[in-house]
Amino acid sequence: MSRVVGIAAALAALPILVVVLVVGGTPAATATGTPTAVTSASGLPHVIAPSKAAATAIAYAEQQLGKPYLWGGTGPDAFDCSGLVMMAYQAAGLSIPRTSQDQWTWGPQVPASQVEPGDLVFFAGSDGTATSPGHVGIVIDPATHLMIEAYATGFPTRASQFGTPAAAAGDGVVVGFTRPRAHM
Hints:
six-stranded antiparallel beta sheet, endopeptidase fold (from Nostoc punctiforme), 10 strands, alpha+beta
């Protein structure tokens, strides 16, 4: 909570309205026209989300950590990758397509150099291709290549790396990124 108070105090010095709120049980601070700070109760890095929608989606996904993978799952007790993404953005007030393939084409796509927290990261996955990705995660920290994903049967919903040699099988080669909040 002290980080949120510090952020709120810093933002209060700016000539804008500062509002402190709770997003999905995660303390957050927001101000008109500024990013939303999301602090992590689960040990994930401190994230400055670019919008309230991205902050809410990240907070929702974080609350699902540890829940089992279930193909076709949309919660509340188990998820598949695209079901987790769909429900995270539904919590933020945005209806997005159900499958990773449809989420990819729904876009809009963003270049890797412009990825922000809350964007989606896509992979071919075991059942997809580079043009029709079969796996998706929610970017938490683009600088450290960290995402939240519902990976596969036998793996709980987790935070993991993407696009690096340390990434799980299938998560090393990124197909691309999209920005759901652009639809708001």
